[in-house]
Every structure is written in C-alpha cells, then in structure tokens.
Amino acid sequence: MQDFKEQSERNFQMLKENAYPGRGIVLGMDSQSKHYIQVYWIMGRSENSRNRIFVEENGFVKTKAYDENKCTDPSLIIYYPVKHIGSCHIVTNGDQTDTVYERIKEKKTFEQALMERTFEPDKPNFTPRISGLIDLKDPLFAYRLSVLKTVNNREEYGQKNFYYYHKAIPGFGHGITTYRSDGNPLPSFSSEPLLLPLEDCPEKTAELYWNALNEENKVSLLVKFIDAESGEFQIVIKNKLA
Question: Which of 2, 76, 131, 191 has a CA positioned 20 to 30 A from the CA of residue 23?
Fold first, then answer.
C-alpha cells in the first residue's frame, strides 16, 4: 500500500497547488472497507458561480442560489449533483444527474444515459461533464467514472471517456475534475483519474478536501458515506457562504 500512499499524496499536493481545478468528483472507500465514499465540490470565478450553496433535500443534494437577487443565469449552475435510486448512487457536475437517474429508473445503464449527453455549451470553455456511479449490487465494478469533453476545446471534436474500477482500494479513491488548471479558455481535465486519499469518516474527509481547495475560488463541497452492506448513507456539506 506504500506505493498507493505516495502516489495519492503527490496527486493531492497537485490538487492543493491548483488554483482552479473547477468542479471535482472523487469515488472510493474508507480504510476499513465498510463505506463507499463520494466527494463532490464546486468552485467559481464569477459572482454568479460563487453565489451558490449545497442543500440536502430528502437524501438528494441540490445547488441553490445563496442570494436569489444575484442569480443571473441558473442554466448551468443550478442542478442536483447527488441522487440515488435503489442500489445506485449517482454524482455528477450538472443536470446529467437527472438523465442517469431517469435511465436507471427505466432499467438502462449509466453508459446509455451518458451517450445522450455531451460537454457543456459554455463556449469557449466547453466544460466537461464529469459523472460517477457506485452501484452496491454491481458484481463487476466497485465504481465507474466518466468524462464527456472536447478535444483541445474544439466544439466539433467530442469524446466520451469511461473508467471502471473492479475493486475499491481501502483508504483511497479516484478523482476527476473539470479543468487541468486556471486559464482562458479553461483547459479540460486531460489525465486518467487521479489516485487520492480518503479518511474514515465523512467529517474528516470533508475537512481534508475543503482545506485543500483554493480559498478564493472554492464554493461548496459535499461528502457522502455509503454503508457497503446496508446502503444507508450520511452526507456532510460545507458551504463558503453559509
């Protein structure tokens, strides 16, 4: 496990030094192999993007304008990042959460749902749509990740990347972000998912990642701990404005 630890520490340091990774997802498991873990955060550079909080709603989480009077364009910033249906726990950076939720409801798959979607239409960034799924009844994979993006910010060249993990590594997760770094236009995430550390309780995991994110640009963060046996879960939320 030492190699995992060293690699995850290097990647985590890169995250800490990155002023603007944008939105991020980490999926993994605690060191005792008792809980699957989902981490999701949002960041913002504009007043509209920073004017948000996470709110839990009947086991789901939604983004909400902190000050409704300052919300100028809700189209890409107000959505449900986290939902669950049956044994499936969904996390995404946009309204594709609803697409995945509805298709699973129709007995279709994570992949079939995301084949209907593409990157966000926010020219010139064309922000990637990043998504993750933990299905407690999946006999093949502990979790799945997806990145839908352009090639080099070229709108006419889209790609869909899927990553499958047969077994979770105790105490670690795999993370994807929307951007490699700050920039204009913002450069899309371009590596494989990054091995990252996880703690053994939601509060400590939330603190770990909240403290790592750039102070000026971070907006909100959530951590969801899912009991691997019962499916019961706990959600911890951190909001800069609340």
Answer: 2
Cis peptide before 124 (omega within 30 of 0): yes
Closest CA to 119 of 47, 186, 68, 204: 186
When pLDDT is cut at 50, 70 and 90, the band that residue 72 belongs to is confident
Q: Which fold has domain 2-230?
A: Glutamine Phosphoribosylpyrophosphate, subunit 1, domain 1 (3.60.20)
Q: In terms of Cα–Cα distance, which of 1, 27, 24 is closest to 165?
A: 27
Supply the pTM of this predicted model: 0.97
Cis ω for the linkage preceding 185 (within 30 of 0): yes
Spatial distance between the Cα atoms of 42 and 49, rounded to a whole number of angstroms: 9
Q: Under 8 Å CB-to-CB from 54, ≥6 apart: which residues?
A: 42, 61, 62, 63, 64, 81, 220, 221, 222, 237, 239
